[in-house]
Each structure stands twice: as structure tokens, then as C-alpha cells.
């Protein structure tokens, strides 16, 4: 299981990369492994307003369909169009294949997320 330094992690197995007021969100290596072969992803629309904990989309794999939850509040400013035609990129390159980018409305929400070491311990407790 690969966990990268310098990212934030949610209990829903999402990674968050912060660049200024923008947060890129994707699923972790742990999540893609648990899901199995990803065949479809439903993403939010640009300009959607999300609150932390809101469902922003669905990831379908050969095993199941899983809701995806926003770890932060903000406005969707970008989606990764590449995933519409190639959802398997989430399996192949989970940390390079972000799903959406949010313009954060409250960066103090980052304090409630985990750093890499905490996330590693969380994953061990989940197994």
C-alpha cells in the first residue's frame, strides 16, 4: 500500500493535495485496491457547492458502487475529464489521477484530516 507524504487524508480514503486555496481530491491506493477494477465514475459539475461530508459522486467497480464524499467544503472549480473515458486511471495511478478540484471555503477543515503517518495507522486498524 502506497501512502504519499505531504498530502492530507480522509477516513473515506481520499487524498487531498492543497495548492493555495485550491484542493485536489482523489482516492488513495488503499481505496482503489479495495474497490478492484474501476469501470465508471460519476463526478460533480463545475460550480457545484459542496459541504464537507456531502456526496459528490459515485465510483463503480467490478465489485460495487461506492459514494464519494467531499472531505472539504467549497466550490468545484475543475473536474478531471480524463477519468470519464479512462476511469481505470484511478487504479493505475491513484495519486496522479485527481477527481475534482475545490476552491476551499474554510481551510480550517484541513485540521480535521490526517497526515500520512496517521493515515497509515488508520489503514492498519481497518484491515
So what's the CATH class? Mainly Beta
Largest sheet: 6 strands, antiparallel
What is the spatial order of strands in the main beta sheet?
Answer: 1-2-3-9-8-5
The number of domains: 1
* CATH homology group: RNA polymerase II/Efflux pump adaptor protein, barrel-sandwich hybrid domain
- Tell me the CATH topology: OB fold (Dihydrolipoamide Acetyltransferase, E2P)
Q: Overall pLDDT, averaged?
A: 95
Order of helices and strands: EEEHEEEEEHHEH
Low-confidence stretches: none
User: β content, as a range?
Assistant: 25-35%
Q: With helices defined by DSSP (H or I, 4 residues minimum), what is the helix count?
A: 4
Count of extended strands: 9
**Named CATH architecture:** Beta Barrel
Query: Could you say which structural class the secondary elements and strand pairing correspond to?
Result: alpha+beta
Q: Specify Rg, calculated over alpha carbons.
A: 13 Å
Rounded to the nearest angstrom, the distance between the terminal CA atoms is 12 Å
Which shape, going by the Cα principal axes? globular
Helix coverage percent of residues? 10-25%
Please give a structural write-up.
The structure is a single chain. The protein has a 6-stranded antiparallel β-sheet. The chain has a 3-stranded antiparallel β-sheet with strand order 4-6-7. The protein has 127 residues and is an alpha+beta fold. The chain has one domain (8-126): OB fold (Dihydrolipoamide Acetyltransferase, E2P), CATH 2.40.50. The mean pLDDT is 95. The protein contains 4 helices and 9 strands; from the N terminus they run E-E-E-H-E-E-E-E-E-H-H-E-H. Helix content is 20%, strand content 35%. The chain has helices spanning 29-35, 82-85, 89-92, 116-126; strands at residues 8-9, 14-19, 22-27, 38-42, 49-50, 55-61, 65-69, 74-79, 100-104. The protein is globular and about 35 Å long.
Amino acid at each position: 500500500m502506497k501512502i504519499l507524504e505531504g498530502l492530507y487524508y480522509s477516513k473515506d480514503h481520499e487524498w487531498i493535495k492543497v495548492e493555495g486555496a485550491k484542493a485536489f481530491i482523489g482516492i488513495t491506493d488503499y481505496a482503489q485496491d479495495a474497490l478492484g477494477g474501476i469501470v465508471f465514475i460519476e463526478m460533480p459539475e463545475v460550480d457545484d457547492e459542496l459541504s464537507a461530508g456531502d456526496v459528490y459522486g459515485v465510483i463503480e467497480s467490478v465489485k460495487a458502487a461506492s459514494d464519494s464524499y467531499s472531505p472539504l467544503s467549497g466550490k468545484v472549480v475543475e473536474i478531471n475529464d480524463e477519468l470519464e473515458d479512462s476511469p481505470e486511471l484511478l487504479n493505475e495511478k491513484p495519486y496522479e489521477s485527481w477527481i475534482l478540484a475545490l476552491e476551499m471555503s474554510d481551510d480550517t477543515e484541513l485540521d480535521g484530516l490526517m497526515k500520512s503517518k496517521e493515515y497509515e495507522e488508520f489503514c492498519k486498524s481497518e484491515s
